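R.M. (postdoc): so does anyone remember the format we settled on? I'll just put the structure tokens first.
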């Protein structure tokens, strides 16, 4: 497990990062946004990866509460941390995207942007509370709640300037293919992060 965490997973992460850079470089530009669209690919991939990881953490939390095995509680914690990290990276990177596309670093008048901020705030507050409570069942319940709440917030957010489905609505197969490759690569990176955090918790438990 130590070899997996210290050697294998970093190599996998490096390979996936190289692929992400490759897809970004080779991805086609767009008539209106030009090369900025390449950042939008990554931006969209981070959204799906963040929402997906909140759901994975929620699912693991449910499994942990049902099976009551410590390994699943540790997995829940690892996935929850990964979800928060991904969402934080997404929130920060979205500032660059909104600046380049709309001329604002934080377009707070856009409902989707406010939804991103609310989800981040909820995730941070609940993570701090869970850390203070320091009780595995409570952490699992928090993860279970966060597996649902972000989807509800995003679904209820109206659209003013943010396109509803910019990639899916594109008539370019090349854009859709490279976006799919970007999404899959980012998902692989997030899965690697979860595995790295999870194995770290397992190794810590063995040392104790």
């Amino acid at each position: 497990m130590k070899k997996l965490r210290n050697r294998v997973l970093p190599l996998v992460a490096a390979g996936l990062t190289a692929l992400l850079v490759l897809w970004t470089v080779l991805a086609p530009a767009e008539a209106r946004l030009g090369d900025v669209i390449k950042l939008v690919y990554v931006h969209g991939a981070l959204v799906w990866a963040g929402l997906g990881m909140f759901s994975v953490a929620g699912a693991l939390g449910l499994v942990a509460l049902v099976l009551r095995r410590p390994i699943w509680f540790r997995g829940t914690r690892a996935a929850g941390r990964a979800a928060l990290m991904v969402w934080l990276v997404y929130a920060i990177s979205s500032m660059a995207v909104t600046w380049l596309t709309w001329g604002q670093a934080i377009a707070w008048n856009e409902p989707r942007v406010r939804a991103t901020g609310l989800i981040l705030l909820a995730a941070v507050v609940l993570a701090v509370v869970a850390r203070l409570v320091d009780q595995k069942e409570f952490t699992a319940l928090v993860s279970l709640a966060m597996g649902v709440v972000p989807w509800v917030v995003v679904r209820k957010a109206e659209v003013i300037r943010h396109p509803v489905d910019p990639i899916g609505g594109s008539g370019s197969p090349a854009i859709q293919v490279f976006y799919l490759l970007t999404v899959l690569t980012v998902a692989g990176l997030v899965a690697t992060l979860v595995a790295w955090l999870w194995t770290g918790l397992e190794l810590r438990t063995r040392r104790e």
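R.M.: ...and that's the designed sequence above, right after the tokens. Also worth knowing: The first helix runs from residue 2 to 26. The helical segments are 2-26, 37-67, 70-102, 111-133, 136-146, 149-156, 173-207.
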